[in-house]
Amino acid sequence: MATTLAKAADGGTQTTGPAARIEHVSKSFATPAGQQLVLDDITLDVAPGEFVTLLGASGCGKSTLLNLVAGLDRPSSGEISTQGRPALMFQEHALFPWLTAGKNIELALKLRGVAKADRRTRAEELLELVRLNGAYGKRVHELSGGMRQRVALARALAQDSRLLLMDEPFAALDAITRDVLHDELTRIWRETNVSVLFVTHNVREAVRLAERVVLLSSRPGRVAHEWRVDIPQPRRIEDTAVAELSVEITEQLRGEIRRHGQH
Ligand SMILES: Nc1ncnc2c1ncn2[C@@H]1O[C@H](COP(=O)(O)OP(=O)(O)OP(=O)(O)O)[C@@H](O)[C@H]1O
Ligand SMILES: [Mg+2]
Q1: Which residues lie in coiled coils (predicted)?
Q2: Ligand 1 nearest-atom number relative to CA 36
Q3: Which of 113, 133, 153, 208 lies at 20 to 30 Å from 214 by C-alpha?
Q4: Which ligand 1 atom minimizes the distance to the CA of 30?
Q5: The pLDDT value given to residue 15
Q6: Which ligand is in closest contact with the Cα of 166?
Q7: Closest Cα to atom 9 of ligand 1
Q8: Which CATH number fits domain 3-86+164-261: 3.40.50.2300, 1.10.10.10, 3.30.930.10, 3.40.50.300?
Q9: For position 93, what pLDDT does the model report?
């Protein structure tokens, strides 16, 4: 099953090369006003172990692109391939409320084919990785928003994918909780060497986290600009270097929004 979804999205699942390869991908949707071109000729690779943030104005097609990489939808043209089936994490935690934190993770392990006898230990290890030791038996309603996102992250990591796709996973959290989770995500990314494609419209968050920031234009979404972020990790969102690059990127983003407004 691991390869089926990825294959549905592209022509194949690769075992070498980039974690994700997006080649000349366009996507249109049928609307009452006719075909709407949302993504136009996107070409983008995510290298193994790389952390890329995809930044753009609301409605520019970020989630559409992530869904295509996830294999949840097909491009209208172009090709996408990934190293195995990616794991997904969204703004909404999408945990099963009738299961405990531990059982939510175990379900992902079960779907991956992990033997029953090993699931509990692995679930507890993953809870430890996201610093939720002791939360195994807690139900979703007993957890704070930040804790739920930690469980959702642990569940995504339970899939043992080489590529983690994240769509504004911290957008609903308060600034302090988000800050803590940025630190945790950076730590986990460095420890596991997973590749991450992270969608956000928050410029500071994009710079805080990524090795590379990719800015999408709006209507249609195209790769407008890319920045390498060489600021050493761990970074703080309030670091001067993070702030300075954020100012530069925000200027470009404003330009994109202005251009879009003139259409
Ligand atoms: N299934 C669909 N059918 C028709 N139009 C769609 C569909 N999915 C997305 N769109 C349109 O594609 C455009 C891009 O949507 P998308 O959700 O990818 O944007 P986004 O960049 O993720 O925005 P946000 O930052 O608000 O989450 C929007 O105009 C949206 O209405
Ligand atoms: Mg979106």
Answers
A1: none
A2: 5
A3: 153
A4: 4
A5: 62
A6: 2
A7: 64
A8: 3.40.50.300
A9: 75
Distance 121 CA to ligand 1 centre (A): 40
| Average pLDDT over every residue of 205-212 | 97
> Which residues of the chain are in CATH 3.40.50.300 domains?
3-86+164-261
CA nearest ligand 1 atom 31, residue: 59
Distance separating alpha carbons of residues 80 and 160, to the nearest angstrom: 20
Is the Cβ–Cβ distance between 214 and 223 less than 8 Å?
Answer: yes
Tell me what pLDDT residue 229 has: 97
CA distance linking residue 25 with residue 40, whole number of Å? 7
Helix axes 101-111, 116-129, angle to 10 degrees: 120
Helix axes 175-192, 145-158, angle to 10 degrees: 20
* Ligand nearest to C-alpha 202: 1
Nearest atom in ligand 1 to 61's CA? 18
Q: Take residue 33 and report the two structure tokens written for it.
A: 């006003």
Instruction: Give residue ranges with CB within 6 A of ligand 1.
Output: 29, 31, 38, 56, 58-64, 201
Task: Average the pLDDT over 175-197 and give the result.
Answer: 93
Within 10 A of 116 (CB to CB), how many other CB atoms are there?
A: 9
Q: Which atom of ligand 1 is nearest to the CA of 66?
A: 18
* Alpha carbons 230 and 202: distance in angstroms, whole number: 19
- Provide the pairing of β-strand 20-31 with 51-55: unpaired
Residue-level pLDDT at 1: 33
Query: 110-137: per-residue pLDDT in tens?
Result: 999 999 999 999 999 999 999 999 999 9
Neighbours of 186 (CB within 10 A): 17
Beginning with the edge strand found earlier in the chain, give each strand of the sheet holding 34-46 in spatial order: 12-13, 77-82, 20-31, 34-46
